[in-house]
Write a structure and sequence with these properties.
By secondary structure, the chain is α/β, with parallel strands linked by helices. It has a domain at 54-167. The protein is 27% helix and 22% strand. It has helices spanning 63-87, 102-109, 126-132, 157-163; strands at 7-9, 19-25, 37-44, 47-55, 96-99, 137-140, 169-171.
């Protein structure tokens, strides 16, 4: 079992200074409210800097929609991190955001709305502007490699142990 007292996050000046994020969601796993859970992790120099897991405000009608909402929420954090780092003269390249749902990545990268997606709250289309303005860059990642899975699903010991090194945790 992962013991938090035996791990540490180590940063060093030789690390890559890029900012990346992994975004994920479950789809309507809460059987009472049918709301999904958003989870995302941001990393700098391949080490975790921020993580979030919370229930979405609205019910999603598809897995693509719930993943799209998660990508949009995650992009807010990426832009904030990049702006903060730029303010202290630590310029970083365009942050990369990884998601495991091709449909949500397409929605974010394609300004043409599908008729089925028009009802999505305007705040979730925020990511489209960020992608168009080259403030974030979306990429697909296989769900088995998406470290944000740790924040949205109950994982067994093997999967949980698989993800913690990708967060930059090292054994003391």
């Amino acid at each position: 079992m992962l013991n938090p007292y035996k791990y540490q996050i180590v940063y060093n000046e030789l690390s890559n200074k890029s900012v990346i994020a992994h975004s994920d969601s479950d789809w309507a796993q809460d059987l009472e409210s049918c709301k999904s859970v958003t989870g995302y992790i941001t990393l700098m120099a391949y080490r975790v800097t921020f993580w979030m897991s919370h229930q979405q405000k609205t019910v999603a009608l598809s897995s693509t929609e719930t993943e799209y909402m998660a990508l949009s929420n995650c992009s807010h954090q990426l832009v904030w991190m990049r702006n903060l780092l730029n303010e202290v003269s630590f310029n970083v390249p365009i942050p990369h955001i990884y998601g495991d749902n091709l449909g949500s990545l397409f929605w974010g990268s394609n300004p043409i709305q599908e008729k089925d997606s028009k009802y999505i709250d305007i705040c979730y289309h925020y990511i489209r502007d960020l992608i168009e303005d080259e403030q974030v860059k979306p990429y697909y990642i296989d769900g088995k490699k998406n470290s944000a899975d740790i924040l949205t699903k109950n994982l067994g010991q093997v999967l949980f142990s698989h993800f913690h090194p990708s967060l930059g945790l090292e054994i003391l």
